[in-house]
């Protein structure tokens, strides 16, 4: 594997020097300047790709989730990770517990962790779903 990488580095050096109009370089095994860098190019490239494909999007997702958790306020319509649709009855900025009102009368309340909230339902989301269910009822 090392010989293949050395050979590839040697050929890249040849192409670069031919393009510049200089004489051909010595093989990489003869103590050329590419001996030290060539084994580190592939792992460095893989780490670079791994960062931008895996780590950076995960950081962005966690930051968006933190903004969502910080933006929860009283009377927001939310959906929990268990699929419960509810309205926020009480929320404290310093507490990790949120009280949700489940029924329309406001008598049934549950306390959940802030991390159990999956999403905040906006008016656009709820009205679009109601319109879809109404149109399917008319067709049937």
TrEMBL record:
Domain of life: Bacteria
This protein's GO CC annotations: plasma membrane
Chain segments annotated as transmembrane: 36-56
Membrane topology summary: Single-pass membrane protein
Cell location: Cell membrane
An example Gene Ontology biological process: protein transport
Keywords of this entry: Cell membrane, Membrane, Protein transport, Translocation, Transmembrane, Transmembrane helix, Transport
SMART domains hit by this protein: YajC
Entry keyword Protein transport: yes
Pfam families: YajC
Similarity-based family: Belongs to the YajC family.
Designated name of the protein: Sec translocon accessory complex subunit YajC
Organism from which the protein derives: Rubripirellula tenax
Organismal lineage: Bacteria, Pseudomonadati, Planctomycetota, Planctomycetia, Pirellulales
